[in-house]
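step: validate -> pass
step: tokenize input -> pass
step: predict -> running
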Amino acid sequence: MTNDVMSHEQAVSQQAAERYLLAELSQEERAAFEGHYFDCPACFEQVQLGAEFLRHTRDVLDPEPEKGWLARTLGDLWRPAPAFVSAVMLLAVSVGMYQRVELADARQPRVEASFFLPGPVKGLEKPVAVSRNTKLSLNVDVKPAADFTSYRGRIISASGQTESTFPVTVRPGEYSITVGLPADSLKAGKYSVVIEGLGRDGSFSEVGKGAFDLQFTD
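step: predict -> pass
step: emit ->
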């Protein structure tokens, strides 16, 4: 596995949150999952809840004052195995149930609506009127260059706030890309999809941009 960011479905199907909390991910898997869950409210909440659960479990199993690192490590080794294993199993069951619900939702059929986004001109954003249960496919023209080492996309609200950031693959000879997202991941309003290339000096340059006005029909 490379250091590419995991998709949400990959994170759920690979039980990444559970394995992350139990330190079972490889270094590359950990980097890929961290790149995903910092921008994914569902996975971020799942990791927070799991970490809080483990803290409470430690308090119940070992309600003693805070110890130094060495003492805590030895305490874990000496802790009765059945109690600790039961806590880990309970965590695994809880996280597993949460993941199954998330995966089922991710695989739930959605109507897909495709829109070409012209370059942004104030007041001429592409009207996008869809149901909340729609998957949006937003097509944006880009101008790739050999000087860029990678690309990213950003969805920016009318107020200038970045709603999400995600990696983008732009292959040689391609001059448009498609950004897919659930319509209900955004609120109704005006947005821009900005595609940026990362230069060798570490700075980003805009290589494509489109604008749309999202409205819901339900």
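step: describe -> The two ends are 41 Å apart (CA to CA).
step: cleanup -> pass
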